[in-house]
Amino acid sequence: MSAAPHGAAQSGPALTELSDDALLRLVEQLGGKPFQGRQVLHWLWKHGVDDVEQMRNVPAKLREALRPHRLRAAEVREAELAQDGTEKLLVGLADGDAVECVIIPDGERTTLCISTQVGCPVGCVFCASGLGGVRRNLTAGEIAEQVLLAKARLPDDRRLTNLVVMGMGEPMLNLDALLPALARIHDADGIGMGARRITVSTSGYPRQMERFAKADESYNLAVSLHAADDELRKQLVPTATHPVREIVAAAHRYFGLKGREVTYEVVLLKGVNDRPSHAETMIQTLRGLPCTVNLIPWNPVDEIRRERGLERPLEAHVDLFAEALRCGGLKVTVRRQRGADRSAACGQLRLRRQPGA
Questions:
Q1: Which of 34, 140, 163, 270 is the most exposed place for a label (fewest CB within 10 A)?
Q2: Model's pTM, two decimal places?
Q3: CATH number for the 15-66 domain, one of 1.10.3720.10, 3.30.365.10, 1.10.150.530, 1.10.1200.120?
Q4: Is 3.20.20.70 the CATH number for 74-353?
């Protein structure tokens, strides 16, 4: 008799949504021993199994007792593979909603970008993720499970090397779930990814950034700045309530506590924030700080392009902006466009499959 199929009508949270203590209690309630509960945890996270029958060293009686319980909270509903190897996954959740994660192979590196909320409350004018607002926070299990789903799709000769939490949603507004999810992902007895390979991106919430800095592990921090001028940034990020100087100060305090250089992300838009004067303001704001500026030429979203008239910047303007920052003493990287032939921008796949979401 096989385990109940994923998505079947089953009560209660999935096993991946339970804390270690809660899962151990469940196993004991089902007649198992504490060490058998730890075996179940190992199978769920270290091996990423999605069927109780794959838990080979767990007694048949306990496997039978676990059968009515969902192992996972999510599943891959759809996948789009781009010519450059980038694969975007539409991850279906138990309540019928969906988020996105993206697998990005690049030489020996394989980076996974994951989401923390269904939709996004920030509402950046260029982003598809926030077009329908935010529906809810993801649970810790739903966040961490995206890593399991992605790992299962990798060929045997490729492993996941880096994780970026910069998909759908604002991570700092879901720290109650994000922090335990990252602990699960980092834990040597869990997924086992080093903290130095994990980056969390925020649009800038100083109080939450300070709480994030108190986490046991030292993850990398990225700040979606987009403009160093408060007025222009407010146009790009309408929900922004904190001045740029407060956000940069909070990020610098993070560096002071963790010793991790902060990355400032700037999505460049043609004629909006890609001019030399914008570069000069950024130089004045960030000069002397231990940081890197990551320039991201906008991935066009048809719906946004039609409604708001935004365009991808000219390559020459991106190069000039980068050179100006370098001449101003800042370290700069320019992100290459990936998955351009397959819904490159975050939130596009979900938007197409769930209009109005």
A1: 34
A2: 0.90
A3: 1.10.150.530
A4: yes
